[in-house]
Amino acid sequence: MDDLKNIKTYFMNKSMGDKLILYFFGVILAVTITITTLGNLLYKNSINHSQNENTNQIIKQINNSMESYVNNTENIINYMSTDPRILKFLSDNKLENNNIEDDAYKPIYNFIKFNPEIAGIMIVNTNGGYISDVMNRVSRDSLTYEEWYLKSYNEPEKIHLFTKPIGRNINNVFRYSADEVFSMSKAVVDYNTKEIQGVILIDIKLDAIKNIIENSKPGTAGFIYIMDGNNNIVYTPVNNIVYKINNDWIENINNKIIIKNIRGENYQLTKVSSKYTGWETIGVFPESEGLRVIQYIRYYSLIIGFLALIIAEGLVVIFTRSIVKPIQKLKRLMKKAQGGDLTVSFNTKYSDEIGELGSSFNTMVKEINNLINLVQVEEKSKRIAEMNVLQAQIKPHFMYNTLDTIRWMAEEHNEDDIVEIIEAFTNLLRISLSKGKEIISVKEEVNHVQSYLIIQKIRYEDKLDYEIDFEEKILNYKLIKLILQPLVENAIYHGIKEKRGNGKIFIKGKIEGDLLCFTVIDNGKGIEEELLNKINKMLINTSEKGTEVGYGIFNVNERIRLTYGEEYGLTYKSVYGEGTTVELRHPII
After folding, report:
1. Are 503 and 463 in contact (CB under 8 A)?
2. Chain-centre distance of CA 581, in angstroms?
3. Do residues 385 and 401 touch, judged by C-beta distance below 8 A?
């Protein structure tokens, strides 16, 4: 332990140049090791991501191509559904298979001619009569009982797909097996009467899907297969992997890729579902395909890392001198700034890290200098404000003494109304002065508000009424003085005064948790919602001053927040035309 400590001390006492050489060597060596050991994993993830993106795009393209193919076949059915010759056959319910007119065959042969992927077309009317190119009824049972006919008849607005069409009462002259075709059917609906006239069935060769997949399939060892909505395989190339895939694996992997081990080898599985056809396109690719590139990358990474180590170490000495010199200069300037010289400045013609550090040092010195000047200005402003406060107190004292003399003169002449209003006013002045104290009791604040309301009651007579309800235990707590009267004044002048008829103000005070909560409620005019939002926004963000918040209200909110913190202060609530409530939160003192 001591030997390790001595080595560390010896190293830290070396010159900056020597340390930088060792630092650079260590960093370059670490980068080389990282490239050769961890780079393989990073490259693997990157390549896998790219391959996964490419695979997903190809799967989506195959799915889109199949949707387009099915859509084209549906269009063929739609075209046939409007052909007059076919409509004539469908409307003739007496027509049987042996008495079909040649005209009804023509549109079928036209579509067969230009769409070689179609294995057969059958058109069945509601009476069970049918026409077809190469498809015939096997038994005498009516084709209207067939599953494909019933589904199309019951859901005429949809296209219906059937994979592995086994057990149908139909045969094909070309003897296609159930693994070689899939079927599509759709009802023919009269657009005027909305009645179903029959069903068109088309068998399609699976070679069409095979061509789409084989022309787009990525990789060489993977494969793509198709499943329908009932988890039946529509198409798959010949292989022994597909039947080892558990359907639960791919149930919820739309547009995602998972890795599963199948017969001792990891395979990537991805799926795209089609809302149109209800089919699922699943891609299965061995993970080993993407790992071949990693082997080449690992080899070249070792060579590049070794060459980089040799070249970098040759440049370390040159770089060291260019780095150490400006650092030493910056160190000297910092010592001068530490000694009180804030006029120093670091000059450099480069914008490298040391240049940015020097710029940050210059900014820091300027900010310190600005802060010192700002503190001096604030101290001067504070002294001026204190002088203004002292001077402002002279006038209330003079008014208080003068009003007291007027009160005694009114008493001598038995002018009780004048005595009452002067007593209330002198009480306001007395509490306002509070011998210069900024903190008074809740009881004194209540007396101040009550004196103010007495004066306003005499002024407005029956138009104004009020009620004060304070918990007894709250009266001896302390609070910032003169914070309720501005709220009451605002309620009178902006609420009660603007209201038709009589108005009333409720003033409540109680303790909630660790807060003194005061509420001033009026049933006056109320505040419109847009203005109410502006007022509350300015009470929260005091830098946004405006005429919407009166000076007295803003002053109360600002005094509380500056003294105790931003979690305290005022909140306005109002319903226009019904009244306003202002809540005041003050800490318990």
Report:
1. yes
2. 35
3. no
User: Interhelix angle for 39-81 vs 84-91, to 10°?
Assistant: 70
At 39 the three-state DSSP class reads: helix
The beta strands (E) that lie in 443-514 are given as 464-470, 478-480, 503-512
- Nearest alpha-carbon partner for 564 in 545, 543, 585, 583: 585
Contact 212, 234 (CB under 8 A): no
H or E element that contains 131: strand 130-132
- φ/ψ of 546, rounded to 5, equals -165, 175
- In the structure encoding, which two tokens stand for residue 377, read together? 């200005």
Q: Where are the beta strands (DSSP E) in 422-529?
A: 439-441, 464-470, 478-480, 503-512, 515-522
Contact criterion met (CB below 8 Å) for 238 and 121:
no
Do 123 and 132 contact (CB within 8 A), yes or no? Answer: yes
For residue 209, what are its two tokens? 């899907």
**Cα angle for residues 58, 61, 67 (degrees, 5° grid):** 145
Answer whether residue 308 shows pLDDT above 50: yes
Ordered DSSP codes for 232-293: -EEE--S-SSGGG--TTTTTT-BT-EEEEEETTEEEEEEEEE-TTT--EEEEEEETHHHHHH
The DSSP H or E segment spanning 188 is strand 181-189
Q: Tens of pLDDT along 57-75?
A: 888 888 888 888 889 999 9
In sequence order, which residues have a C-beta less than 8 Å from that of residue 174 and are 6 or more positions away?
Answer: 119, 120, 134
Q: Could you give the count of Cα atoms lying within 13 Å of 385 in the half-sphere of its Cβ?
A: 6
> Half-sphere exposure of residue 567, counting CA atoms within 13 Å on the CB side?
4
Quick one: which of 415, 583, 412, 408 has its CA closest to 487? 583
What is the residue type of 350? Y
pLDDT band at residue 118 using 50, 70 and 90 as cut-offs: very high
- pTM for this one? 0.47
Q: How many CA atoms lie within 13 A of 517 on its CB side?
A: 9
